[in-house]
């Protein structure tokens, strides 16, 4: 059993401990190492990959990796087209997913995604103690955290919890225990010639319905409010295009019924009849309707498995029991506990026009993790990083380059921003990528934040926030259909927006 | 953590939703999202676009213009509607006082939501009329 003796990170005292080996844990560990923060990574799993070792049920993701894109593979700009590769701290090992996909779809299969995460882990030589399950948490008198695990006790002053949002949750309506959860869906052949009743109109419910269309005799999908489609919300909110087929079958009357109704209760059917009977009440007119079903599946979501962290004081909110977090993903109630991966959704941000961040997906969470790692390195380990000086005449071009090609601003719209500080004595400095909510709500010296935003109309446009004498103002730039802001019009717009902070600085002409 | 059925039960006690049936209330809860704010956190930001319609479930919200408190809203009251109806950024900050728990409906969804529920819209109009009357009394 040589492997066991070679497992890294034996129980003991560490400056920081990351829990989890899904994309969130791996990305934050990679970034922490890049910033020189010593840490241990613990995982209950046997291999890297987190939820992608198991889901999505029908084995294909909803996130792109486009083999052909308007920009070169492996560049930073290409990350806009590759939502699934983790970001290495050196240029090699970028875009790891591209080389692992078989070319049949630009949405990777689940096994391809798993292979991608395993390849990133091995190629970048990330160290994880696998098979080590976090079981409980305490606090020392000195404030340090004690993690109880199946391998023994660990202590650390700083924790990063990246355990996903994968614990099945179902509502407590009477008889709900009779429904199988999405997580317990059986092989699709088991649903041949069956009447399926799916509770929930999120992507998980429509994913199951899509996969069962060739098998099921009848599919009913029900929840109280109407289905939202991403093509209508103009965002990743709602059912993604790949799962809309059941909706079309419904509107064509093809054996799929999509109901706006509350689930009153689920009963066992009478002997000789259908195994289950689902009693619903229609949202529009309160009419009761009952449906016979051979299988009832609750596609009602997941919660974060935080174990005893709430008892330690970590406040949680909402149905997903996400921890309430600061803009830097720190527990709002227990300093020193940070979150990475999908749990980072609990740091909601501005959520302008009701559109959430992409923190619940790899393409958003991977950037959060890097911003978090730098924040931890700076604020908990006293590291000082270079803040490159920017000549005033280069500010406009730098920001337009970021707005046109920067992946962080594109994936995390109105959530992450490129920030430049403006000091009359010290000049202009690049502060890097930072949370927009922090910039907007935390006073401070004069500064510029640039991000991309969308308002639900389908347009994606730059927005510049200026902080002057503590007050923040917002300035939008008109959307360009190809999102190319290296245009003369955008240069003029941006130069005039920045004039109050840059003064009469001339904008260099690089000729467009 | 409150389940959606429990929130629907809470809404049933608010004047704004007095005309809705239980399934309609459940539909409302599904249309809105639950949002939590820590003490001092800004919910709406003066002069910034992209807000929503908020309904206070627990806690208090302070309405502040240029950092001066003008009003406090509590359980059952709503805010954010003015900037959505007028298509303009909020003229005030709204800040959580203590832990604030709200339901929120995204700005772009508000028009259809209200047009689909005329009785609720009428109740909202009444509440707005009361606020206007009180503001006028305060001025006179």
Major β-sheet annotation of chain A: 7 strands, mixed
The largest sheet of chain A has its strands arranged as 7-13-8-9-10-11-12
Per CATH, the superfamily of chain B is Jelly Rolls
Structural class of chain B: alpha+beta
What amount of the residues of chain A lies in strands? Answer: 15-25%
Uncertain runs of chain A are none
State the domain count of chain A.
3
Mean pLDDT over the residues of chain A: 94
Run of helices and strands of chain B: HHEEEEEHEHH
Strand content of chain B: 25-35%
Q: Compute the average pLDDT of chain B.
A: 91
Q: What is the CATH domain class of the largest domain in chain A?
A: Alpha Beta
In words, what does this structure look like?
The complex is a heterodimer of chains A (512) and B (140). Chain A has 512 residues and is α/β, with parallel strands linked by helices. Chain A has three domains: 2-166 and 304-379, 3-Layer(bba) Sandwich (FAD/NAD(P)-binding domain); 176-300, FAD/NAD(P)-binding domain; 389-502, no CATH class. Chain A has eleven helices and 23 strands. Chain A has helices at 2-5, 23-34, 110-123, 203-212, 230-233, 245-251, 362-379, 395-405, 407-411, 436-441, 488-502, and strands spanning 13-19, 40-42, 134-139, 145-149, 152-161, 167-168, 180-181, 195-199, 218-223, 256-268, 276-282, 288-293, 295-298, 302-303, 316-317, 322-323, 337-339, 389-390, 416-423, 427-435, 447-454, 460-468, 471-476. A seven-stranded mixed β-sheet of chain A has the order 7-13-8-9-10-11-12. In chain A, strands 1, 2, 3, 4, 5 and 17 form a six-stranded mixed β-sheet that branches. The N and C termini of chain A lie far apart (63 Å). The mean pLDDT of chain A is 94. In chain B, strand 3 (52-65) and strand 4 (68-73) form a beta hairpin. In chain B, strands 1, 2, 3, 4, 5 and 6 form a six-stranded antiparallel β-sheet that branches. The mean pLDDT of chain B is 91. Chain B has one domain: Jelly Rolls (Sandwich), CATH 2.60.120.10. In chain B, 40% of the residues lie in helices and 31% in strands. Chain B has helices at 4-12, 22-31, 81-86, 107-115, 118-139, and strands at 33-37, 42-44, 52-65, 68-73, 78-79, 93-106. The longest helix of chain B is centred in the C-terminal third of the chain and has 22 residues, at 118-139. The chains are: A alpha/beta (512), B alpha+beta (140). The A-B interface holds A 171-173, 223-225, 260-262, 281-284, 286, 315-319, 321, 324, 332, 348, 350-355, 414, 440-441, 453, 455-457, 472-474, 476 and B 1, 3-5, 21-24, 26-27, 29-31, 33-36, 38, 41-42, 45, 47-52, 89, 99, 101, 104-109.
